[in-house]
Every structure is written in C-alpha cells, then in structure tokens.
Write a structure and sequence with these properties.
Elements (H helix, E strand, L loop, with lengths): L18 H4 L4 E5 L2 H7 L2 H14 L4 E5 L3 H4 L4 H15 L4 E7 L10 H7 L1 E5 L10 H13 L6 E5 L7 H12 L4 E5 L1 H8 L5 H12 L11 H6 L6 H7 L10
Parallel strand pairs: 1-2, 2-3, 3-5, 4-6
Helix pairs in contact: 3-5, 8-12, 9-10
Amino acid sequence: MPPGVRTVGADLTRPASLRPALTGADAMFLLISGDFVSAAGDPGGAVSDLLDVARTDGLKRVVLLSSQGVATRPDSLSHGRMGAAVEDAVRRSGLDWTVLRPGGFSSNAYAWAESISARRTVAAPFGDVGLPFVDPDDIAEVAAAALLQDGHAGQIYELTGPALTSPRQRAEAISAALGEPVHFVEQTPEEARAQLLQFMPEPVVETTLAIIGEPTPAEQRISPDVERVLGRAPRTFADWARRHVAAFRVPRR
C-alpha cells in the first residue's frame, strides 16, 4: 500500500457503512461491480442512496467508471440499461460528476495468460475484427485528473486506445513482447460462447459476442478524449503487452 493511503472496509449496499471512508474526503471514484448490481436489485436507487450519504458527509465530486455500452448497446440489460440507471443516479446526485465510458480493456488479454505461458497459444473468436482497446493505466490517469482537477464537471469521456486491434494482432503483440512465437487459433462463435458461459451470465455473453463479432461504428470509433484530458496520445496495446509481459512467460520452477 502506498504511504499515506488509508483503507476502510464498507458495504456499498449499506450506504451508512461508507461514512468512515468519507471522513475528510471531497471526491469519490465510483466503480459498480456485477455483485453490487445483483445484491442491490435496483442499482440506480442504491447508488442514489449511497450518494445521498456521501453528499451529506461533505463530498463534492464523483467520478463514475461506466461503460461504452450505455451509449452503444442501450437495449442490453447488462451493458446498457443497468449502466444508464447508475449514470442517471450520478447525474441527479447534486454533486459535480464526471462519467468515464471505456470500451474493451487491454488487460482482457490476461484471459490468455495460462494458454500462452503453458502452450504459446491463443484461442479467440472473430480473429480479424478490430476494436480500440484501452489501457487501464490511461483510464486511471483520466480518473485521477477528473478527481483532482477542476474543469471536468458534467463531462462524459469515452476512453479508447489509439487504434483498432484484432485478437490476432493482440496475440502478435504479446509474441513480440515475449520474443517467442505465439500461435493464434480462431474459435467458432459457439466455442467462444461455451467458454464464456463458464464465468459470465448468458445475457452478458450474448452482448459481449455481439460487440466483439459485429461492433457498431461507434464501438470502433477512436475517441480523442484520453488525449484531450491527458495532453498525450493513449497508450497502444503493444505498450501494455511490453509492460505486462511477465504474466505470459513460462513460470519458473
């Protein structure tokens, strides 16, 4: 834990439990998990209750990590409607708010870590369909700017990387970072669906496959918002792969 960082346990479904964490705070970074959505039942109402407590305790600013799917998949329960309900609660909170809507994360490639380290193989569907995956470090830096600097209130930032990359290209970038060949195997949509259903609810799987297989123009758009906020271009997937290449190496015995 970095020096000066204080950790406080709380349960977001019990807003009053958050009060010890709010002591002395004037800004909040809000990340809503799938577990919270399931437990809350009404995520928008639960977030409103949470932010009511935060505002009463002196909070002035909230930065929400939302999803690109709120805009691009508005009819999807998992990606659109739930996210829209949370965003609406944040906008109605009376706090200065900023909403971050990233697309796919570069760190999704961690799902390949075991197959690459063990077999130097990546299996994924839609091998040549490109999306502008964003580096989580860029999301974090934009969030920090919105939390700590003025001028971001009332803004919705769409966060993407600087270029479209396909699964095949991302595998090649990891191969280059390793300095070893990585074999790409293209899955059928049915194979990918069966794999994803092992850890995702079916509605989330169906929307995910639609996004990675038949992305809309908005989902393939390169957003200028990372550069607009940070004053530099977003990091590439290859940058991410080089920084995290250790996750894909063969473990030492």
